[in-house]
């Protein structure tokens, strides 16, 4: 089974999981990523600063991005 890694970026912070997750295919990897992101979304939104971005990526075995979900805040004045 293919191995995947989760990486989260929030401003200057960027952290990648040391432990890989196994998923049978890309569809299952996407479903898990959206599920994990959904569980985290409320907490992220409460702490999000103006004009900032948070993102979660799912990386392949070579740690290259496969999927990315972004939450972005923008101020228009």
Q: What does this protein look like?
A:
It is built from one helix and five strands. By secondary structure, it is α+β, with helices and mostly antiparallel strands. Strands 1, 2, 3, 4 and 5 form a five-stranded antiparallel β-sheet that branches. Strand 4 (53-59) and strand 5 form a beta hairpin. InterPro entries: DUF6894 (IPR054189). Residues 3-72 form the DUF6894 domain. Pfam families: DUF6894. It comes from Bradyrhizobium canariense.
Short characterization:
By secondary structure, this protein is α+β, with helices and mostly antiparallel strands.
Q: What's the number of extended β-strand segments?
A: 5
Oligomer: single chain
- Using only C-alpha atoms, the radius of gyration works out to 13 Å
The share of residues in helices is: 25-40%
Q: How many independent structural domains?
A: 1
What's the helix count?
1
- The span between the termini is 49 Å
Protein name: DUF6894 domain-containing protein
Q: What key attributes describe this structure?
A:
1 helix, DUF6894, alpha+beta, elongated, DUF6894 domain-containing protein, 77 residues, single chain, five-stranded antiparallel beta sheet
